[in-house]
Amino acid sequence: MSGARFASVLGSLRARLFAFLLALAALTSLAVGSATYMSVRAEADQLFDYHLQQMALSLRDHGGVSADERSALANPDFDYVVQIWSADGVALYTSRPQGLREPLPPRAVLGFSEQRLGDATWRIFAAATPLRVVQVGQPLAVRRGLAAAAAGRSVLPIAIAAPLVALGLWWLVGVSLAPLQRVVVAARARGAGSLEPLPVDGLPGEVAPLVGAFNGLLERLAAAFDAQRDFVADAAHELRTPLTALKLQIGLLQGADDAATRAAALARLRGGVDRAAHLVEQLLALARAEPGRAAAMADLDLAAVVRQALADAAPLAAARGATLDADLPDVLPQHGDAQALRSLVRNLVDNAVKHAGAAPRVRVQLALDGGRPRLRVDDNGPGIPAAERERVFDRFHRREGSGGDGSGLGLAIVRAVALQHGAQVTLGDAPGGGLRAELRWS
To answer: Is 123 helix (H, G, I), strand (E, B) or coil?
Structure first.
């Protein structure tokens, strides 16, 4: 992923997180504001009822209305209506503020009640003594307007704080994603051949595994590139020798004076070409078996593949005077790359034939072991010391004093194909002396 693409994803992530958090904050603010609004309105209604009640009880207990109280109650801006009735229904006093077209009802309902008077609904509290009835009323529209105004003032701080909360959320999201931004900057600064790991310090726990996995991929790519470079360098070095020999043999062929000399030079040239061709084939086989290469996996008969490999090795065995014995089942179904497995078996058999000594005897066994295929190739040669058995799987490795004209790639191909098929190859001692190469599928 390029730095620009990574930055685009980061920006999208920041916007998404901000949108989600902002939506959550908005819903929370709305819920809190609604609850506060309703609570303040309810408390205001209770407070207004308390005022009605206290005013009515005060006038009832005083027994009358003083001149100062009459003046205050008659104020048009005063939104309460006060009426006092005698026990026999005679109106003793009414404040009659503007807007009240008719008096409060003479038949009072003691306590709180709501009554329709004209085109408005009133909240009324009535209190009685043996001599009089006191009623105090207030329009519901007025008290509801006052309650709404009080509730609105209580919610106002939340509305003012909402933009500040949004800015804070945007800043917090940016701070939280700052370590990821550092990763973006580091990725942008990399060159095409730079495969160093990206920084993981300070990354959130949810993002660190992603960057860690990406660093693991970079590490595997670096290892693959190093292996490829080493392979190319080794292949170039190994090919230089046979090609140089071919040039010399061509020169000898050109300088041959008689038919016998030309025939000998031609034979050496043909042998050099065969060795170069074999080396190229081995290099191609190893390249196909390298990790990460797509193998042509299919259902196959492993026993038939081993038979074909033995048939391929028969000319070499005959030339070396080797005996090939095989203990194979009629059929052994398996899933894999037939060409790669055939190359694996061929390389094991060829190695056994070449290094088994003067009278080579090679035995190939294929069977099921615990429901899994197991292949053994035994020879009667000198074997390989235990300390050297791991090194012989290295590419282009040749044991000192082993002789022969091998490429040093046979066992490297065997291990690569085995890993490609989820199998493990080991070297050990064959019964009666010699080397045993064993391949086990897991």
So the answer is: strand
Distances (CA, A) of 397 to 234, 238, 279, 296, 384: 11, 11, 14, 28, 13
Q: Which tokens hold the place of 296?
A: 């042509």
Residue with tokens 């005698």: 86
Give the CATH number of domain 3-173; options: 3.40.50, 3.40.462, 3.60.21, 3.30.450: 3.30.450
Neighbours of 212 (CB within 10 A): 14
Compute the average pLDDT of residues 124-137: 81
Q: Tens digit of pLDDT for each residue in 303-329?
A: 999 999 999 889 888 888 898 999 999
User: CA–CA distance from 307 to each of 114, 324, 345, 351, 417 (Å)?
Assistant: 106, 11, 9, 17, 18
CATH code reported for the domain at 208-286 = 1.10.287
Instruction: Enter the tokens of residue 32.
Output: 């809190």
| Spatial CA neighbour of 295 closest among 285, 283, 305, 280 | 285
Structure confidence by residue, pLDDT tens digits, 204-259? 777 778 778 888 888 877 777 776 776 676 666 556 766 777 777 787 777 777 77
Cβ atoms within 10 Å of 190's Cβ, excluding its own? 14
Alpha-carbon span 285 to 337, nearest angstrom = 12
| Structure-token pair, residue 299 | 């259902």
- What are all long-range contacts of 16-21, with beta carbons under 8 Å and residues at least 24 apart? 17/173, 17/176, 17/177, 18/169, 18/170, 18/173, 21/169, 21/173
Q: Is 131 exposed, middle or buried (0-12, 13-18, 19+ CB in 10 A)?
A: exposed
Residue-range domain boundaries for the chain: 3-173, 208-286, 294-441
Rounded-to-10 torsion of CA 403, 408, 409, 415: 90
| C-beta of residue 303 within 8 angstroms of C-beta of residue 328 | yes
Most confident of 129-138, 262-271, 391-400, 418-427: 418-427
Q: Model-level pTM greater than 0.70?
A: no
Tally of CA atoms within 13 A in the half-sphere of 308 that contains its CB = 13
Q: Is 81 helix (H, G, I), strand (E, B) or coil?
A: strand
Half-sphere exposure of 42 (CA within 13 A, CB side): 6
Whole-angstrom Cα distance, residue 221 to residue 228?
Answer: 10
Domain 294-441 has CATH 3.30.470.20: no
